[in-house]
Design brief:
Length: about 550
C-alpha cells in the first residue's frame, strides 16, 4: 500500500508538471496572438479637441492607444508637480509631414472626442499609416469625378497594384533571365578565347546572339518604363487634421479603409485580408509595415536544408558509435566531445561558420570554379548554404544523442535472432535495427528543428540580412540559389524590436512575427511527431 501511495504521488506530480507546461505554452500563444494579431483589426479613429489655457484649440486625429484619467502631472521648470491630469497616447500617423506619429498629450480637462465616419486610413509602403479625409483622385493633375468616390479609389488602386506586379514580374523574372543569358554568353566567349577557338564564325554568332539579347532587354526596359509611368499617374488627395491637402501616389498605398463607418462583418473581412497580406506579402523597401513572406520562406527553406544535411550525418555517427565502435578511449572521447558540443554557445558556431565555411571553403570554391567572377565573390560570402551547414553543425550533437539513445533501447535479442537466421550485420542493421530506431531519429529531428528555427545570432554572421530583394528560388537556372542571402523570422524579430526607427509602430509586428515563428516550429514538430507515432505503432509488436 505504501508503494502504491508513493506511485500515486509521483503520478500526480508528473501530471501537474505536464499541466503547468501546457498552461505556460497556451499563455505564451495567447499573449503573442493578443498583442500581435489585434493590430490587424481596424481600430476606430478619434478626433480630439484640446482646450489650451490661452483659449486656443488643438486638434489631433488618430487611434487612441491609452487613456489615463488620473495621471500625476509632469513637473514644471521649477520641479514642482501638482494635481492630476489626463494622459493620452495617440497614434497620429502622417509620419512624413507631421512627425512623430505617436503623441503623448497631457490635459487638465478631458478632451472632446468624436469619431467622424468620413475619416480614412491609408496603409502605405513607407512612412507608416496616414489619417485624414479623402478629398478626391487626380490623373495627370486632372480631377476624377464619380458617383461613388470610394469605389473609384479601390478600382484605381487595384489597377495600380496590377501594374506594379507586372513591372516586378518583368524586372525580377524576365530581365533577370536575359541578364543571366548574357552572362552565360560572355562566359562562353571568354572560354573560347582562352582555348583559341574564337574564330570569325564564332565571333559573328556571338555578336548576333548578343545583339538579340540586347534588343530583348531594350524592349523589356521600354515596357517596364511604360508600366511605371502608367502606375504613377494616379494621385490621392488626403486632407489632414490641420486642413492641409497632401498628394499621395497610389503606388505608395497598400490599402485604404474608413474604420468608423465599417460594420462588424466588414471589419472581420478586413482583418482576414490584413492577416493574409502580412503572411503573403513582401516588406517594402525602407519600411517594415508590409509582409513577412520572404522571412517565412527563408526560415522554412533553411530548416529543410539543415535537416537534409544533419540527419544523415547524425544517424551515421550514432550508428558507428553504438554498433561498430568498441568501448575504448576513442569512443569515450568522441562521446564527451559530442556532449560538450551541445553546450557550446550558438554565436561560436556562427564565428566558426564564417571562418571555415564562408572564407575557407567558399573562397576555395570561388578560386576553383568561379575565377572569372573574382574579385566579386560567389560562394565566398555569407549565404543560404553556409547558414544551413552552420546550423547542421550546431544541431548535430542533438541528433547523435537522440539516435544513439534509440539504438540502445532496441533489445539485443532482435539482433542476435537476425544474425542466427543467417543475416549479416549490415543486413541486420538495415532491416531490423534502423526501422525500430526511426522514431528516435525523428525525435532528434524534432529537437534539431526546434533549436535551429529559432537561432538568430549565428545566422547574422553567415547569411541572414534585413532586406533582400530576391528569394533564393526563382525562374533562373539553377533555380535554387544557395549562394544568396536570405531573410529569417528570428532576425526580423530582432530588427523590429531593437533596430527599428519607430519602435512603437513596429511593436505589434514583433509579437505577430514571433507568433508566426512559433507556429512554424509547432507545425514542423507536429508533422514529425505524427510520422514518429505511426512508425512506433507499426514496429511496436516487434519489440514485445
Amino acid at each position: 500500500m505504501k508503494v502504491m501511495r508513493q506511485n500515486d504521488r509521483w503520478r500526480w506530480l508528473t501530471a501537474g508538471a505536464v499541466a503547468v507546461c501546457l498552461l505556460a505554452f497556451t499563455l505564451l500563444i495567447g499573449l503573442l496572438a493578443w498583442q500581435g494579431v489585434r493590430a490587424f483589426w481596424p481600430q476606430r479613429v478619434d478626433l480630439y479637441s484640446f482646450s489650451q489655457p490661452d483659449g486656443r484649440e488643438v486638434r489631433l486625429l488618430g487611434e487612441t492607444l491609452e487613456h489615463q484619467p488620473r495621471f500625476p502631472a509632469p513637473a514644471d521648470e521649477q520641479g514642482n508637480s501638482a494635481g492630476q491630469v489626463h494622459r493620452y497616447l495617440i497614434k497620429t500617423g502622417n509620419r512624413d509631414w507631421d512627425a512623430p506619429d505617436f503623441r503623448v498629450v497631457y490635459s487638465r480637462q478631458a478632451a472632446s472626442v468624436s469619431q467622424p465616419k468620413a475619416i480614412m486610413v491609408l496603409q502605405r509602403r513607407s512612412h507608416g499609416q496616414a489619417y485624414g479625409w479623402f478629398i478626391g483622385l487626380r490623373e495627370d493633375n486632372e480631377v476624377l469625378t464619380a458617383r461613388n468616390p470610394d469605389a473609384l479609389l479601390h478600382q484605381r488602386l487595384a489597377q495600380v497594384q496590377l501594374l506594379v506586379r507586372q513591372a516586378n514580374q518583368i524586372r525580377r523574372v524576365e530581365m533577370a533571365r536575359v541578364n543571366s543569358q548574357r552572362e552565360q554568353l560572355d562566359e562562353q566567349a571568354t572560354q573560347q578565347r582562352a582555348a583559341g577557338r574564337f574564330d570569325l564564325q564564332t565571333q559573328s554568332e556571338y555578336q548576333a546572339n548578343q545583339a538579340a539579347l540586347q534588343r530583348r532587354f531594350d524592349h523589356l526596359s521600354e515596357t517596364l518604363a511604360s508600366l511605371q509611368q502608367q502606375s504613377q499617374r494616379d494621385v490621392l488627395i488626403l486632407r489632414d487634421v490641420h486642413g492641409i491637402d497632401h498628394a499621395i501616389p497610389l503606388t505608395e498605398i497598400v490599402d485604404s479603409w474608413k474604420p468608423n463607418a465599417m460594420t462588424l462583418g466588414e471589419k472581420s473581412l478586413h482583418f482576414l485580408h490584413q492577416l493574409w497580406r502580412f503572411v503573403s506579402d513582401s516588406p517594402a523597401d525602407g519600411g517594415s509595415e508590409s509582409g513577412a513572406f520572404p522571412a517565412i520562406f527563408g526560415t522554412v527553406l533553411m530548416v529543410l536544408l539543415m535537416s537534409i544535411v544533419v540527419m544523415p550525418l547524425g544517424v551515421i555517427a550514432a550508428i558507428w558509435l553504438h554498433e561498430y565502435a568498441g568501448r575504448n578511449a576513442l569512443t569515450r572521447l568522441v562521446r564527451i566531445a559530442v556532449v560538450n558540443l551541445a553546450g557550446v554557445p550558438s554565436i561560436v558556431y556562427g564565428v566558426f561558420g564564417l571562418g571555415f565555411f564562408v572564407w575557407l571553403v567558399g573562397g576555395t570554391i570561388d578560386q576553383l570554379f568561379f575565377a572569372s567572377a573574382l574579385p566579386n565573390p560567389t560562394f565566398g560570402t555569407p549565404g543560404l548554404l553556409w547558414a544551413a551547414l552552420t546550423l547542421a553543425l550546431l544541431t548535430l550533437p542533438v541528433v547523435i544523442v537522440a539516435t544513439e539513445e534509440g539504438l540502445s533501447r532496441i533489445p539485443d535479442s532482435l539482433r542476435q535472432g537476425s544474425l542466427a537466421l543467417g543475416a549479416t550485420q549490415a543486413e541486420t542493421l538495415w532491416h531490423v535495427v534502423l526501422p525500430l530506431a526511426v522514431p528516435a531519429m525523428l525525435t532528434g529531428l524534432i529537437l534539431a528543428v526546434a533549436r535551429a528555427a529559432g537561432e538568430t545570432a549565428p545566422l547574422m554572421l553567415v547569411g541572414v540580412v534585413k532586406m533582400v530583394p530576391e528569394l533564393p528560388i526563382d525562374a533562373v537556372f539553377p533555380y535554387l540559389h544557395l549562394d544568396r542571402k536570405f531573410m529569417h523570422l528570428g532576425f526580423q524579430i530582432y530588427d523590429l524590436a531593437f533596430q527599428s526607427p519607430n519602435i512603437e509602430a513596429d511593436r505589434p509586428l514583433v509579437f505577430a512575427t514571433a507568433l508566426l515563428l512559433v507556429l512554424i516550429i509547432l507545425s514542423l514538430n507536429l508533422l514529425a511527431m505524427s510520422l514518429r507515432h505511426r512508425l512506433r505503432e507499426r514496429y511496436r509488436l516487434m519489440t514485445q
